[in-house]
Amino acid sequence: MLLTRKTQVACAVAVALVATAIPFTLHAQEAASSPDANDEAAVEIISISRKRPESIQEVPIATTALGERDLAAAGVERPSDFIGLIPNVSIVDAANVGDTQVNIRGIISTRDAESTFAYVVDGVLMTNPNSFNEELLDVAQIEVLKGPQGALYGRNAVAGAILVTTKEPSDITEGRFEVGIGNEGYMKANGMITGALSDNAFGRLVVSTSNFDGHYTNDFTGEDDVVDYLEDFSMKSRVIWEATDDLKLDFRAAYSDVQGGAINFNAVFALPTFETIFQEPAFFKDVNDHDFIFAFNVPGENNQETTELSLKADWDLEGYDVTAVVAYNDLEETLLSDGTSASFYGYELTPQCQTDRATLNNAPTAIGGADRTDLFGNFFAPFGVFPPGIEFQGVYGPYTPTACDGYQFQERSQSDFSGELRFTSDDLDADLRWIAGLYFVEIERDVVVAYGADTGAGFLQQAYVPPTGPNPTDLLFSDTFETSVYSAFGQLEYDINEAWEFAFALRFDREERDVSNNVPNVNASGLNGNAQGPINPAFGVTPAGIPDRSRSFSQLQPKATLSYEASDNVNWYASYGVGFRSGGFNSIGTEATLDFWFNSLGTGNPGDFVDAQLQVTDEYDKEVTTALELGMKSTWMDGKLKLNAALFDTQVEDNQFFEFFAGPFGLLRAVTTIDELSIQGFELDFTYQATDDLKLFGGLGLIDSEIEENRNRPLTVGNEAPQTPDRSFTLGFMWDYEVSADWLLNWRLDYQYVGETNFHTLQGEQTPTIWDFFGAVSPNIPPGPHSQDFSNAKRDSYSTVNTRISLDSENWEVGIWAKNLTDEQYLQEVIPAPEFGGSFIHPSALRSYGMDVTYRF
């Protein structure tokens, strides 16, 4: 179901109108009144990290929890908002709306592979990675668990788990309506209503819509709402039915329709020899000094439609509780953007490329050019685009306003059905407590990555477009992935005495994975001079057809924890845990493409001149993480100061790492593995209630990592784990001031620092590039070697400040807020492409500010 923007806004307004039509009751007003400044400080946060309620200061896991008041005061609306509050946890959100990569203690989520953390909403494990980047609506608490959590949370929890608890429906009718505005065209409206549906059934409905034009402008079209824009419509409902005194049913349904910008990258070369030959520093430039120009002619569009349904049943039986969960999720996602093929002259002689180059070039007017430095930068610094008549001599950039770079289309659609049956002992004071359960999930995912010609006739957004179509396909990867997972798990917690507890958890996962090819055995359109064979190179290896593939992965995931209550205020723990992430498949044709262009086969292929010696295959192994941790949780000064710390040592086998390849074929995404990765670190966090009105908080994260073995790129041994800053810290305060008996002023400020970050395993070591081939066969490129050097591709450290000030009464709240208050300009992501000899980079959001008004009843 696709809803128009007018319909979405109407739904949000309708919720508000229905809400305001309901008569006020004194009880509802009391329930909706603003919290006292000291209420949350006095209430102990309850953790559900071990699938039962426990004090967060006693649970033997490194976990950070944010309660409802913290989330509201910090202005948390999307995952990146709360991730930035936690040391040793970071996020990259660059390519498209759902393509987030979360790093927990040096283990990073991987594009085109499984997640590295379990994402659980109201006790339901979400199996679709895009679910994580939905708007956070009506949330009561968020917990971030660090370290392998596979024993209880299963596959993919190699780095940790993130648990989101939303607000339960109430038996009292109440509601909320909020509107907000901000800079760069930001607008939002959301409404919530909850109440009794019957004597024993209660419902809650939330509707939200938001629009954001973005910080950046397309310099070619002049449009300011087509680069990093975002339009989001979400509906979430929850119904709880207390069927009997012992049985409670919890039904959740959610729908979201998101549209946003996609592939907003610029390119920066890392070719020292080009800098020397052409006497141009731009060929070996620090990525942090880049001046961004977005000037694409193909609109970057990312469309996502998500549907989520789940039912959780809780039975309270004699001596134990039974929980049963079934869930269904469906994602339909497409992505269209400009391409990169112009860099290798693939479409140089097509009529549309020739027409565009007549007016869209940065050659000086003195030699007959158009001097469009606003679109390409200064001539040959580093990009140089000539008018027609001077062929195959320019240095083209990606994502340009010309048709010379073609286009790319991606589709990622997934549906999954999962279930869990869990038995839990219900006596929390017993010396022996236990959990046992079974879990399954069935996943079907279609992945399409297509590249082709931009003829100026528009774009059919589909996997294959024939040569007679407006945008013919020249390279296509299209596969259907099917996954079946079966698990059994359990945990025992035993109180040895009043001070010591030993807990042991164990899980067995078996994952069966199949992939089938959907690419037709046809040739490319003939428009791309570099792509004259089948549209998938795998047909060159198996011309009779590409066979289906199947693999199974299984793993035991134990976790042992010994905890010691040294006093009423100090708890120590030591743990050993194992996490597991399934292996999988790259798109069929990946290995054949890379071998032809980059590896020496002795057949006269371009790779004979490059000889990169890559070992990228069409499948990759499972990842296994083993971690040791020693932690302390403490409370001091009559409960005013909470101080927690942890030391950890993590060893990762076959760490899955995303690699990006660019060449005459276009772009190619693949998952490789780092054979052995070692990570050690330290964490510290504190919360101090300095006065009744002032709370201080902060945290520190330190990481020391090293690649110990990497057969795919042996030169990287000794380097740091990619995308892992060696230090990060946060600091902030929350201050309350009673303006009057009816109004409370709240001010929260958060400061975050993130250290220098490498984004690739190569961090200055020189390796071959495709320019070695062009230097051997083209008179326009001097002979090589032309190796890349990523010593200038490290992201600089950066710091941001977010703040929110609100004035709150019984029914009204007015808030003003700012994110990145100091307007820090830093890179969000660097995607090095070694064999291309450069990186694709994306900027972070600039300063945002605005005002929200909320009415509660």
Automatic annotation (TrEMBL):
UniProt superkingdom: Bacteria
Keyword Methyltransferase: no
UniProt-annotated location(s): Cell outer membrane
Gene3D superfamilies the record matches: TonB-dependent receptor, beta-barrel domain
UniProt main location, coarse: membrane
Domain TonB-dependent receptor-like beta-barrel: 337-821
Key words, A-Z: Cell outer membrane, Ion transport, Iron, Iron transport, Membrane, Receptor, Signal, TonB box, Transmembrane, Transmembrane beta strand, Transport
PANTHER family to which the protein is assigned, alphabetical: FERRICHROME IRON RECEPTOR-RELATED, TONB-DEPENDENT OUTER MEMBRANE RECEPTOR
Annotated protein name in UniProt: TonB-dependent receptor
Species for this entry: Alteromonas sediminis
